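Memo to structure team: turn this sequence into structure tokens by end of day. - J.P.
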Amino acid sequence: MVNRHFIVLAICISLCLALLGCQKVTNKSAPVATSAAVATRSPMETITIYSINSDTMSLIPVSVRKISNKNSLEYICSLVVENMDEQDVLVTGCQKDGKNAIVSFADEKQPIKECSAQMEQLILDAFANSILDNVNDCTGVIFRCDGDAYKSENLSFERNEMYASD
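Reply from structure team:
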């Protein structure tokens, strides 16, 4: 009788295991949308300005996110200053005069003071190239020191002298 109970129990367990092993597994997660429900992202607009690689002492183009719809002179100058990581540059004014941009630097900061001739040249080139590439109808750049003629430890320009890169 013990053998009979053991055999019945073994058959029941085998039957249960066989039924469990034959069950179809279904994915109960939500169905995946395959058409119009896919979200589309508009590409992020960028503009290219110039900054300085201090290790190689060279200008580098930098793509920055475009926040303003207009590439105004003030906006471009602010982007260049933001991307001058190691330089202590302060722009005290920027305005357009016809087709020329006028950028004035603080006389106590770079590029006017405590700046090597090479670094000063790179800073001025970064501003000039960024402005000429991005500000509509701008064909020339004039640099000044607190509104007066540009005079630093290394360079000097007349009050309305157009900047020309070496």
